[in-house]
Amino acid sequence: MLGLEKKDTRLFLIVIGLTMLAPFLLNPFPEGSEMAQFNAGYPDLMQRFVIFGIFAIGFNILFGLTGYLSFGHAAFLGVGSYAAMWMFKLFGMNVVPALLLSVVLSGLFAVLIGYISLRRSGIYFSILTLAFAMMSYALAYSVLATDMDGPDKQGLMQKGLTGGETGLQLSVQDPRILGAKAGADGNTPVPNFFGIEMRSATEMNVGDWVFTFSAGYYFSAFVMLIAFYISIRIFRSPFGMMLRAIKSNQQRLNYTGLNPKPYMLAAFVVSGMYAGLAGGLMVAMDPLAGPERMFWTASGEVVLMTILGGVGTLIGPVLGAGLIKYMENILSKINSEILHQWFAWMPDGLEDLVVTLIYPFIGKGWHLTLGLMFMAVVIFLPGGLVEGGQRIMAALRGRKAKDKKSDADADVKPAE
């Protein structure tokens, strides 16, 4: 199927099924029940799952295949966001041109940063990428946020190219060449895909369950599937094999007469373009671009996603992105009141003790839970969630094989 091997085709079909059925799978509990707070099937969170999945997939092409750890990939996420915003402000609200510009500009920016950073390896490469990302953050936060010539008549450049700490936002004063400057209600228009608004959604009620189908989510999911398919082709291509050789033993590769630098730069640029695509999608779903997307914490987040899911695996980064975004949006909402409701069946003293012990790990303390989970994965599951799944499947297969062998031995009759 689509030029993929049987194993990759099966994986791709599984990913398609999971993304298409996400509104059902992520809403397992009926609306209004005590467990409904664990539902994640609302559009904003589902969009974050797939968008950060794209970000992590691209990062994995660099880190997972070449072994080069970048601490500055958030710079490309920010460049993609600003590029999409300026496309919306100047030309129109169609998301396709905005995403194309995000990919192109982030790719060009990655060529510049990669050409310089890849002159070093190891921790020096990581520090260089971090330095570039923080310089980009500083430019977006202050330098490029100042209009040197003063505000223009339309107010378009009152806060420079990046809008400073408040970020870039849409306005009815934006001089859009294509499309209306304002919506039918007189407010700022919303991003659309050839007339289909990204914020449009349809709800379906099935008993006590409410399922939401969002145009923005399905558009993002379709883009993620394309990105995932391309990553599979890269992993299985001779180019991907060359990147693995770089990770395995770059010095030995040099002895063969091959120059690994062009391959490393290509991987860096492709990874940066994935990040730019994710940044453009973030703006397409929520028209706002700010410098915080370039901060070092955003780069560290994608590193955690990739390691938690499984470095060098195909689906691992997507799983890691989903896990972190789920914890960030669901686990962080649990408070002491909810904990008291859960453990109300306990004696009062014991209930208070249990709530006191659990409370530091939820709500604002969800990062503590994430840190403990990260430590456990690094120590016990170096291959991330994918390795954990593989171990479970191997154990199940071994148990089935053992049961079959026992049944076969039981059927053997002694010779007379």
Which short descriptors sum up this protein?
mainly alpha; two-stranded antiparallel sheet; 6 strands; globular
What is the compact description of this entry?
By secondary structure, the chain is mainly α.
**What fold name goes in the CATH topology slot?**
ABC transporter involved in vitamin B12 uptake, BtuC
Model regions low in confidence, pLDDT < 50 over at least 5 residues: 148-154
Write the CATH architecture name: Orthogonal Bundle
Largest sheet: 2 strands, antiparallel
- Give the neighbour order of strands across the main sheet: 1-6
**What percent of residues adopt helix (DSSP H or I)?**
55-70%
Annotation, overall tally of beta strands: 6
> What share of residues are in beta strands?
under 5%
Q: Which of globular, elongated, flat, extended, rod-shaped describes the shape?
A: globular
**Under the CATH scheme, which class?**
Mainly Alpha
**Count of domain modules:** 1
Determine the N-to-C terminus distance.
55 Å
Number of helices: 15
Any overview of this molecule?
- By secondary structure, the chain is mostly helical.
- It has one domain (6-329): ABC transporter involved in vitamin B12 uptake, BtuC (Orthogonal Bundle), CATH 1.10.3470.
- The protein contains 15 helices and six strands.
- It has helices at residues 6-20, 22-25, 43-66, 74-90, 95-117, 122-141, 215-236, 238-255, 261-285, 296-309, 316-329, 336-342, 348-358, 366-380, 384-411; strands at residues 168-169, 192-193, 196-197, 201-206, 209-214, 288-289.
- The strands form three sheets. A two-stranded antiparallel sheet has the order 1-6.
- Helix 7 packs antiparallel against helix 9.
- It starts with 5 loop residues before the first helix and ends in a 5-residue tail after the last helix.
- Residues 148-154 have low confidence and may be disordered.
